[in-house]
Each structure stands twice: as structure tokens, then as C-alpha cells.
Specification:
The complex is a heterodimer of chains A (99) and B (552).
Chain A lengths: L3 H20 L3 H26 L3 H31 L13
Helix pairs in contact in A: 1-2, 2-3
Chain B lengths: L2 H5 L5 H4 L17 H19 L2 H28 L8 E3 L4 E3 L1 H21 L27 H8 L7 H14 L6 H19 L6 H33 L4 H9 L10 H4 L2 H19 L7 H8 L2 H26 L4 H24 L4 H21 L3 H27 E3 L2 E2 L9 H4 L1 H15 L5 H15 L3 H27 L8 E2 L4 H19 L2 H9 L6
Helix pairs in contact in B: 3-4, 3-7, 4-5, 5-7, 5-14, 5-17, 5-22, 7-8, 7-14, 8-9, 8-14, 9-10, 9-12, 9-13, 12-14, 13-14, 13-16, 14-16, 14-17, 15-16, 15-21, 16-17, 16-20, 16-21, 17-19, 17-20, 17-22, 17-23, 19-21, 19-22, 20-21, 20-22
The chains are: A mainly alpha (99), B mainly alpha (552).
Chain lengths: 99, 552
């Protein structure tokens, strides 16, 4: 199969993730959409790696996974602490600092 | 090796029998990487201190480890610079991952000094009244407890403090040290995450106004992760374009001077769509970090909600690191593309300068006002970046050094003005501060005048250098817009000074806390640097111009 198709798939996944970040209102779902964007990046790296025949892209995909895991740790800690003090994880409710 | 050999499920015996010695051990120049390694090592020691040292003595141990490590790392930077690594011996270390050259050493030194002042403001424990006989700092007794709950009261009563902020600060600084010296896109991305993730956490741990602090952290985290996902996608596209993430290789492919074209790469290498979109996405992520319009929306909320010592450190050091990375990317990787990125950066610089200055006029909270002022300053620095000349690099380096000390000092003054609810950040409460405590108001006035760019302060020398470089680089229009927005910005800085000195103090107004020598040192160093760089900038301008050459 032509590896370019995987690039189109990755671009589509990235767009779905970015759209989700912009339109969803639950912080957890927004965060999952960001993870989807990171995974789309991984797919792009691996597809290009296959096309170029060098391994850099596959190595970078591992780094991205580690970064995504670290981001989950930090992100869930922050979101859970917000949820516990407000009983809501909606990003619309967090508006103490509007001008 | 062809693509099919890598990806087939089996391989011939002859290939399998190749000696394992073909894998070469990497050669790492530990001495040249020592500033970063010292800070990372100290951060790990800080984690161990949290685990093993009794709670009573953790605070002293953490402050000691942090200050000693940052001072040692700064000494290492000075030693490297004195050894000529900033000029004649500049080269690429760690198998092409890190560039040790003038701009990286200059910016690393600036970040480390800002970090030391940051530790001082973090460690301040005399501003809040004692709680149950324990001195408290600006950070929550226990960040995990729900605000206003019984567990929070118990934690305060037991005298807990969040001493984890010091290792977190050190991890953030280590990422910031790598960020401007990263010499491939993977290192750039990892450094971006290493300094961002601790900052997200630091924003969430304020002692007072905890709901606002948590809200700021959520906003910063979601938007920051969103922006770094875009950066990563841009890196993926550039990797697809050039077949490598190394800055030098990408620059060769962009220039068209690549020597032996791999046939597997020929398909994507001429594809300018990948290059242009990839470049735009990476630059977007960096502009988010420096807080340039239209990627600035997080800045006022995060600056307002985060604990004020964190805000001061973040405002100073993040900007230094991110502008360093932006300079290296645009000057080393993409100079062959400057006719494409310059018009875009022109537009960004103009809206950033004007947007920051105009919106700041309407602000009523001192931290938000300083946030919008930092956006305007990002625009001024961008004008120097656009110059695309050696003067552009050195003026940006000088501006960043001058700006970071003023910022830390100004936010340290904000921590002193307090009322019953903690810091009194509303501007109306600052009325008549000059009558009540002339010294604090005068110091703050010096910082504001420096932000405004009044002569004999470092802000003037920095702005002059940046605008001169921009004018000589053919960006005269930018200079006109820059001077106009400086005039607009001067209006609200002067308005705060007038408010402090020429209006009657309110009877129920805030008090000015007497700080310990820690905050006093941070503020005094800020004032001293502001005045020295303003009165006698020449030595430091020369230093910046000596340091202003990137290695590729």
C-alpha cells in the first residue's frame, strides 16, 4: 500500500483532534483530543520513516510516546484538582479571570 | 541499506552475521554540557530530598541545593565562555543535538541568573503572617487538598509546605537551558516539554486564591499542550521534507546545497508544501511560548492566576528561552526562506506591539497589566528578530537580559503590597502608595520607567538597540510602529506612577510587608541591573555582540 495514504490519514486524525479541542467543553475530552493530535504526529513520523527508509522517525515516535505519558501525569493531576474543588471539569465554568 | 531490507520480516544470514561492533558508542562532551547536567542532577537530588529528609529541614535543604546548583551551573557557563566556547571554539556537541556557541552561553547565563533570583522569591517566608506558629511561603500547604476543606486546614495546622516547588523549578530551568541551544528538532521538542510541564504544575500551587491558581494552570496546560501538538506536527512535516531533524541538514535541503541526494528522499525533498506548513506550525508553537499576538490569550490569565513568584520567573525565563530557540530556528535553519517568513513575522510583530500596548490601557489589575506589557515587549523583541543581521541577534540578546531582571524585580515588588486577602493586585489599592512607603513605590517606578523605555534605564538601551537593528535591517515601518506603541505603553506605565505618588492614600488601603533579605536581594539586583545597563550599556552590548554568532 502506498505510504502516502497514511499521511492523509494522519492529517485527518490531527484535524479531528484540533477540532475537538476547539469545540468540546469537558477538560478531559479536550485533553483526549490533544492526545489524538500527538498520535497523529506519531503516525506521520512513522509513515515518513517508511518512505525515507531511515529510522529517525520511528525513534522520534518513541520520544513522543514518553512525552505524551508525562503530559498525562501532569494534565490529569491539574484537571482532577480542578474537578475536586469545583465538582465540574467544564472549561466554560473556569472563568474567574474574565476581563 | 535499502528500505526493503529494513522492513522485511526476515533477513539473510550474511547480514545477520555482521559484527555487532558496527554500532558506535556516542561521544558526549560532558564538560561542555555541564551547566545543564548540573541543574538536572540537582533537580534529581531535590526529589530525593523530598523522599528522605524530615519535613522540618526540607525547606532549608531544598533552597540550599537549588542555589548552590544554579550558582555552580552559572560558574560553568562563565568558564565555558572564558574558554572561548562562545566565539572561536563554538561547535556542535552531543552528537549534533546541542550547539555550544555564543547565543546559547549568553542565554543560559541569563536564565541561570534569573533562576537564582527566582529561587530567592520562591523561598520568601516573611510576607504572610505566621499560621499556627509556622512561617509560610507563597505556595499551598498541600496542593492536593481541596481549597477550604478540612484536609487543607489540617495541612496548614501541621505546618506543611510545598517544598516540591524547588525541584520543579530546577527541572524547568534545565529544559530552558537546552531549549535555546537545541540543534535538532527532536531536542527542541523534548526541551519544550521539559520546561513546560513543571511550569504548568507550579502555576497550580498558590497558597491564596487557590481556585484562580488552579484555573490558570488548567488554561495554561490545555493551551500549552495544544500548541506543542502543533509544533510536533510541524516537526513531523519538516522531517518528511528533509529526511532528518538535524538543523544543519534541513538548512542544506532548504538552500538546495545538499550534496548527495538519497533517492528515497527525492520524492519529498522538493515538496515546498511540507516545508512551508511545517515551518509555520513550528514557529507558531514558539510564538505561543513568547506570548505574541494572536497566540497570547493565555498570558493575562496565567500571569494573574499563578503565584506571583512563579509569574515573575516564568515571565522572565520563558521569554529568554523561547526567543533563543526562535532566533536559532529562523537564523540557522530557515535563512534560505526569509523572504517567506519575514512578511508573516512583520505582521505578527506589528499586531503584538500595538495589541499589547492598547489592551493594557484598560487593565485594572497590576498583574494583568504587567502581562499585557510583556506581550508588547514580545513585539519589540520580534522587531529585532526580523532584522536578520548580526546586530539583530546581539540586540535581542541584550534586550532579553535587560528585560528579565526588570520583570523579576517588578513581580517581586507586587508580592510586597498586601492586604487581608493576600496580595492587593487591584490598581485602585495602589493609590497613594508613594506617600505610605516611598521606597517601595520609588523602586517600582524605576521598573515601570524601564518598561516604558525612559533613558538611563536598561529598557531604553534595549529598545534603542533593537530598533536600530530593525531599521538597519530594512524594517523602518516596524520601528515607527514600535515607537508609537512605546508611546502608548508609556501612558499606562506613567499612569501607575501618578496613581502611586499623586493621589491620596485610602484609609483601608494595603500595607507593605517587610520582606526577608531574599526578596530584598532579588529586588535590589533588579534595580542595580536596570540602572547599570541603562547608564553604561556599552560593555554589555559588546558582550552581546561578541556572543551573537550562531554555529551550524
Amino acid at each position: 500500500m502506498n505510504p502516502v495514504n497514511y499521511l492523509y490519514l494522519a492529517a485527518l486524525l490531527f484535524t479531528i483532534g484540533a477540532t475537538g479541542v476547539l469545540i468540546r467543553r469537558n477538560a478531559i475530552v479536550v485533553f483526549m483530543c490533544i492526545e489524538l493530535m500527538l498520535n497523529a504526529c506519531n503516525l506521520t513520523f512513522v509513515a515518513f520513516s517508511r518512505m525515507h527508509g531511515n529510522l529517525d522517525g520511528q525513534i522520534i515516535a518513541f520520544f513522543t510516546m514518553v512525552v505524551a505519558a508525562a503530559e498525562v501525569v501532569v494534565g490529569l493531576a491539574i484537571i482532577v484538582s480542578l474537578f475536586r474543588s469545583r465538582h465540574s471539569a467544564s472549561v466554560d465554568d473556569a472563568s474567574l479571570m474574565k476581563l | 541499506m535499502s528500505a526493503s531490507a529494513v522492513h522485511s520480516l526476515w533477513t539473510t544470514a550474511a547480514t545477520a552475521a555482521e559484527p555487532i561492533s558496527k554500532i558506535n558508542a556516542p561521544k558526549i562532551e560532558y564538560g561542555q554540557l555541564s551547566p545543564t547536567l548540573i541543574v538536572i542532577g540537582a533537580a534529581v537530588i531535590g526529589v530525593l530530598v523530598e523522599a528522605f529528609v524530615p519535613r522540618k529541614s526540607r525547606y532549608y535543604a531544598q533552597v540550599f541545593v537549588a542555589v548552590v546548583a544554579l550558582a555552580a551551573a552559572f560558574a560553568a557557563v562563565v568558564a565555558l565562555a572564558a574558554g572561548g566556547y562562545g566565539t572561536t571554539k563554538a561547535h556542535i556537541a552531543a552528537m549534533g543535538a546541542i550547539a555550544v556557541d555564543g547565543p546559547s552561553l549568553f542565554l543560559q547565563g541569563t536564565i541561570l541568573l534569573a533562576g537564582i533570583l527566582g529561587v530567592f522569591t520562591f523561598a520568601e517566608r516573611r510576607l504572610d503572617p505566621e499560621a499556627h506558629g509556622n512561617r509560610v511561603d507563597s505556595f499551598a500547604a498541600q496542593a492536593a487538598s481541596v481549597p477550604g476543606s478540612d484536609s487543607e486546614k489540617a495541612a496548614v495546622k501541621a505546618g506543611f509546605t510545598t517544598t516540591e516547588v524547588f525541584p520543579l523549578l530546577l527541572f524547568a530551568i534545565s529544559g530552558m537551558l537546552v531549549f535555546p541551544s537545541a540543534n535538532d528538532l527532536l531536542t527542541l521538542f523534548i526541551a519544550l516539554e521539559v520546561f513546560s510541564l513543571p511550569l504548568y504544575l507550579l502555576c497550580a500551587v498558590a497558597r491564596r486564591k487557590r481556585l484562580m491558581s488552579q484555573e490558570a494552570a488548567v488554561k495554561y496546560f490545555l493551551l500549552g499542550a495544544f500548541a506543542s501538538a502543533f509544533t510536533l506536527f510541524g516537526i513531523a512535516l519538516l522531517y518528511g521534507y528533509a529526511g532528518s531533524v538535524s538543523y544543519a541538514t534541513i538548512a542544506h535541503v532548504v538552500d538546495g546545497t545538499v550534496t548527495n541526494v538519497d533517492p528515497a528522499l527525492a520524492g519529498t525533498m522538493g515538496n515546498d508544501v511540507l516545508l512551508l506548513i511545517g515551518m509555520a506550525l513550528i514557529v507558531m508553537g514558539l510564538l505561543f511560548k513568547v506570548g505574541a499576538v494572536p497566540f497570547h490569550m493565555w498570558t493575562p490569565d496565567v500571569y494573574q492566576g499563578a503565584p506571583t513568584p512563579v509569574t515573575g520567573f516564568m515571565a522572565a525565563a520563558t521569554k529568554v528561552a523561547a526567543f533563543g530557540a526562535l532566533l536559532r530556528l529562523l537564523y540557522v535553519v530557515l535563512p534560505g526562506l526569509r523572504w517567506d517568513w519575514r512578511p508573516v513575522m512583520w505582521a505578527v510583530a506589528i499586531v503584538t506591539m500595538l495589541g499589547g500596548a492598547i489592551v493594557a490601557i484598560t487593565q485594572t489589575d497590576i498583574k494583568r497589566l504587567l502581562a499585557y506589557s510583556s506581550i508588547a515587549h514580545a513585539g519589540f523583541i520580534l522587531a529585532g528578530v526580523i532584522a536578520t543581521s548580526p546586530d539583530g541577534v546581539s540586540s535581542v540578546l541584550f534586550y532579553l537580559a535587560a528585560y528579565s531582571f526588570v520583570t523579576i524585580g517588578a513581580f517581586a515588588v507586587v508580592t510586597l503590597v498586601r492586604d487581608a486577602g493576600g496580595e492587593a493586585t487591584h490598581l485602585s489599592k495602589w493609590a497613594g502608595l508613594g506617600r505610605r512607603s516611598p521606597l517601595v513605590a520609588a523602586v517600582f517606578a524605576v521598573f515601570l520607567l524601564s518598561f516604558a523605555g525612559i533613558p538611563l534605564t536598561s529598557g531604553f538601551a534595549g529598545k534603542f538597540a533593537v530598533f536600530k537593528a530593525a531599521a538597519e535591517g530594512g524594517a523602518g515601518v516596524l520601528v515607527v510602529v514600535g515607537v508609537l506603541s512605546s508611546a502608548i505603553a508609556a501612558f499606562f506605565y506613567i499612569r501607575v506612577i501618578v496613581l502611586m505618588f499623586f493621589s491620596e492614600p485610602k484609609p483601608e488601603g494595603p500595607t507593605v510587608a517587610v520582606p526577608s533579605p531574599l526578596t530584598t536581594t532579588a529586588i535590589a539586583v533588579g534595580v542595580a541591573v536596570t540602572l547599570v545597563l541603562g547608564v553604561a550599556p556599552q560593555y554589555f552590548l559588546n558582550l552581546a555582540s561578541q556572543a551573537g554568532v550562531f554555529v551550524r
